[in-house]
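Per your request, structure below.
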């Protein structure tokens, strides 16, 4: 493999240390990856508001693209593919497995997809829940204490629901 000298740090490095131009796959950039990354970090820090505004505009103009990226990142976190996730949504008719309602929470791309519920001790995916039900399970620490907190909360609600009639 050929070597190349970075025009920023003047160090001779293998071509694998250089990125290719995005427009063509034939030519390499003149700065090594490390120098390019350092330059980008400095520029972004120095021009934070300008970069932030440009990124926000790009996200607004490419909502569908970012929605797909967002979903891909979400499913990868739990060892699923986007197809697995879509199949789960279809099986659940795009409704929360606990309350049977669709997701209502919105983000910058529109209504969010259902949350992937998983056991925090085993990381095993259980199903898809709306944000409210997923957070409720989290607040009750269902994974850490089994279903005891959930059962206790149910008894508590029933106790006062029958006494207040």
């Amino acid at each position: 493999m050929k070597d190349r000298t970075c025009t920023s740090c003047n160090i001779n490095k293998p071509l694998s240390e250089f990125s290719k131009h995005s427009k063509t796959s034939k030519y390499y950039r003149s700065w090594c990856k490390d120098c390019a990354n350092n330059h980008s970090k400095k520029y972004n820090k120095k021009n934070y508001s300008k970069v932030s505004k440009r990124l926000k505009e790009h996200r607004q103009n490419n909502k569908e693209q970012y929605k797909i990226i967002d979903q891909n990142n979400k499913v990868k976190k739990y060892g699923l593919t986007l197809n697995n996730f879509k199949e789960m949504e279809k099986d659940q008719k795009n409704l929360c497995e606990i309350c049977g309602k669709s997701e209502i929470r919105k983000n910058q791309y529109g209504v969010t997809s259902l949350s992937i519920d998983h056991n925090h001790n085993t990381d095993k995916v259980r199903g898809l829940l709306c944000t409210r039900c997923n957070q409720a399970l989290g607040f009750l620490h269902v994974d850490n204490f089994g279903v005891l907190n959930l059962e206790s909360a149910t008894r508590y609600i029933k106790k006062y629901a029958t006494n207040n009639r």
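The mean pLDDT is 86.

Regards,
D.
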